[in-house]
Amino acid sequence: MKTSFVLPADIEPLSRDPKATSPGRRINLHHSMCFGCGADAPVGLRIDVIAGEGLTVSASMKVEDWMQGGPGVIHGGLLSTAFDEVMGTSPLLLRMPVVTGHLEIDYAKPIPLGSTVQFTGEILGGVRRKVYTRAVAHLGDPQEPVAAAHGLFIAIDLEKHFAGYRDRAVHPSGHQNGA
Ligand SMILES: CCCCCCCCCCCC(=O)SCCNC(=O)CCNC(=O)[C@H](O)C(C)(C)COP(=O)(O)OP(=O)(O)OC[C@H]1O[C@@H](n2cnc3c(N)ncnc32)[C@H](O)[C@@H]1OP(=O)(O)O
């Protein structure tokens, strides 16, 4: 699949943290109201990202009618969100919280409503706080990808990064911290 993404020359290998989620289990360190993975979000993708061997992850997503963009197919931005979720969760295998710095998507084929998209993702390496990832999507045949993505995620100090926003956080009750 064609892509214009270029990895940096100084990229270094990264290692899975010994305490990372075991292969086959859901990576479960985010919050339940997240648009990408939260079970309590009123609208969302509800993607379960599953730890794989090494620095790999997998996920699947049924393409529901409300995800429609062009007639009969998924909205490209929504697919981008799914890739963000899959790749953004993978650095938790390093036990490293991150935010998205840069995201690139290569769309190869239209993805019909009603299909189930299978994602595989992997961490390619890192440079200082930067974690480089890639993911591929297919509809059942890994040899026939329908889209692929590269993501650059930046490690953060969770408490500091969200310090100014926590009073806006929405909880399953529908209430905000400051409400
Ligand atoms: C959350 C819970 C976990 C659980 C995660 C669960 C999965 C969540 C999946 C969804 C994730 C999201 O959508 S997160 C939401 C969307 N993203 C955001 O809101 C991020 C907004 N941006 C920021 O807050 C900031 O720009 C940061 C934190 C990314 C970087 O700011 P900083 O901390 O001041 O660091 P800074 O020095 O600028 O950058 C560090 C290094 O990254 C490089 N860098 C920074 N941005 C870019 C960029 N766009 N393209 C290339 N390189 C970049 C810099 O050159 C530098 O490289 P060098 O000098 O070292 O070479």
From TrEMBL:
Gene Ontology MF annotations: hydrolase activity
Main localization of the protein described in the UniProt heading: membrane
Superkingdom classification of source: Bacteria
Matching Pfam families: 4HBT
Boundaries of every Thioesterase domain copy: 72-143
One term under GO cellular component: cytoplasm
Name this protein carries in UniProt: Acyl-coenzyme A thioesterase THEM4
Organism: Gordonia sihwensis NBRC 108236
